[in-house]
């Protein structure tokens, strides 16, 4: 069911109409001595008064008349609508939903803890009121379901640097989570403004093992970068010596390369050694 505009007139005009009917009823009762017209006017004023309602800012009022959806009023203010209609209020404000910390398995089967915040608002009051039982509870359940679905499609971390991961591609994961949520919440007339991960960690039973793996991977990457830089520095040193006129045979080059690589790559500071003899 889609939202439509309900019939309603300005409430202050409605109040003037009610007061006019009430004054007319008193006039017919007291001055004209006509009880029928007097009570009729008073009855009509009471009926009209039942249609007075107030719409707050960023709020929609859904009007239901004996099980029939009449429409919704979004403009704030005092209004006069169909008398005896049931009025249900739906908030149109932007709201946040913080999911619980869920324990799920990523695509590699590793247990992880994950949570997200969802920013949403109602854009169709009729769908929010009639197409789902409780749209706030619906948002909560579908948000957790979508979060589980997205988390199970990606690894927590990608050690091979191929494809997306939950930790390394937060923007892409947030975008996919928002799209997944929007497809699920459209039936409730809800628009998803943003969805972001607020918590991401390995489960406690594997946290230590995964931390060691991350540390080992970081050390290997750092060592590879250091070796790559050291090789370049050694090449530059040998080329510079040759340009200055120093001729080095293969054995001296090997000894020099060995000394420079040890000095650059070693974790500890190199200790100078004075060679008083010859390498031959």
Automatic annotation (TrEMBL):
Transmembrane segments: 7-30, 36-55
SMART domains: PHB
Pfam families: Band_7
Occurrences of domain Band (ranges): 50-214
Keywords: Membrane, Transmembrane, Transmembrane helix
InterPro entries in the cross-refs: Band_7 (IPR001107), Band_7/SPFH_dom_sf (IPR036013)
Protein name, UniProt field: Membrane protein
Source organism: Aneurinibacillus danicus
């Amino acid at each position: 069911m889609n939202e439509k505009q309900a019939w309603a007139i300005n409430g202050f005009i409605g109040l003037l109409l009610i007061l006019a009917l009430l004054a007319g009823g008193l006039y017919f009762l007291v001055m004209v001595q006509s009880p029928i017209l007097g009570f009729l006017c008073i009855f009509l004023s009471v009926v009209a008064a039942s249609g007075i309602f107030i719409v707050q800012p960023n709020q929609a009022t859904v009007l239901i008349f004996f099980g029939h959806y009449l429409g919704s009023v979004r403009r704030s203010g005092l209004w006069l609508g169909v008398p005896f209609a049931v009025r249900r209020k739906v908030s149109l404000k932007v709201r946040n939903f913080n999911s619980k910390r869920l324990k799920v398995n990523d695509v590699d089967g590793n247990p992880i803890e994950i949570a997200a915040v969802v920013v949403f608002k109602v854009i169709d009051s009729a769908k929010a009121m009639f197409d789902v039982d409780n749209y706030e509870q619906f948002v909560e359940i579908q948000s957790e379901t979508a979060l589980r679905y997205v988390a199970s499609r990606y690894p927590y971390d990608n050690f091979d640097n191929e494809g997306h991961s939950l930790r390394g591609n937060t923007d892409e994961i947030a975008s996919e989570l928002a799209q997944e949520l929007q497809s699920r919440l459209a039936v409730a007339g809800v628009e998803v403004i943003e969805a972001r991960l607020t918590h991401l960690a390995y489960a406690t039973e594997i946290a230590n093992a995964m931390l060691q793996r991350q540390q080992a991977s970081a050390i290997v990457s750092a060592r590879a970068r250091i070796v790559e830089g050291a090789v370049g520095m050694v090449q530059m040193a040998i080329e510079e010596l040759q340009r200055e006129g120093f001729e080095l045979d293969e054995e001296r080059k090997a000894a020099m390369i060995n000394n420079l690589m040890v000095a650059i790559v070693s974790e500890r500071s190199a200790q100078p050694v004075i060679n008083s003899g010859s390498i031959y």
